[in-house]
Amino acid sequence: MEFEGIVLRVTPFKEKDAMVNVLTATGVLSFMARGVLSIENKNAASLTQYAFSRFEFSEGKGTGLSLKNGTLIKSYEESFKSLDRLAALSLLGELTLHGVGEDEASAIYPYFKNALEAIESGFDLLTTVIVFFAQVLKAAGYGLEVGHCVFCDSTKDIVAVSYPDGGFVCKNDLDEETMHPADSRYLKIIRYLFMVGPEDVKRVAFTKEECLGILNEFKEYASDQLGLSLKGHELLLRSIKK
Predict the structure, then answer these.
(1) Domain annotation covers residue 224
(2) Is 234 within a domain?
(3) Per residue in 160-198, pLDDT tens?
(4) Which residue in 95, 164, 177, 222 is deepest, having the highest Cβ count within 10 Å?
(5) Which residues, at least 6 apart from 202, have a Cβ–Cβ distance to it below 8 Å?
(6) What is the mean pLDDT of the chain?
(7) Distance (Å, rounded) from C-alpha 28 to C-alpha 130?
(8) Exposure string over 125-138, b if 16+ CB within 10 A, otherwise e
(9) Residue 199 within any structural domain of the chain
């Protein structure tokens, strides 16, 4: 059995063994890697955090998957030298591990791969993060409806986004006591975030102010709907202020 995937987490188990969580095209895969915490171990390089690697497994009765061979395809260690890039990666990993189920994670696999490439290339970090965040919400079943009004299905005169109601709201259904009209650029950005394909992660960048506003909205929405408390969010905010 072989898989390619992105290493999300390596958890020490006993003296030199580790439990590993890898994001793959079929979801999050967990397996035991024996002796991998030894610097002489042949598989150690393939299990650095956020590495893109190929894994071959053996499967024992009742013991789950055990790593046989690991081959590093690409390392993103250069990104670790920058605090803001590391913080962005940390948030992406946290969202993947805690924001979606193991099977649902398959939907965000191509976005994670392209986000890694975007971060390494120096593309705007905050844009990369909010694109990925939107796709996590979508995969978890809480994506915003951005094709029409959530109340009447109208595609015309969209004037607001209602997080409690799950998406766009048209002029006729706007409740001025609980909703605030949004400008057209904000509405276009929200639509883009939930509609963009994984290959277009780097197609357009938004301003820092636009990204921070949406990131904070997504964070509150994820807290309300998924019960997420994202440590990576605060780390990212602190890193970009330095």
Answers:
(1) yes
(2) yes
(3) 999 999 999 999 999 988 899 999 999 999 999 999 999
(4) 95
(5) 114, 117, 118, 121, 123, 128
(6) 93
(7) 21
(8) bbbbbbbbbbbbbb
(9) yes
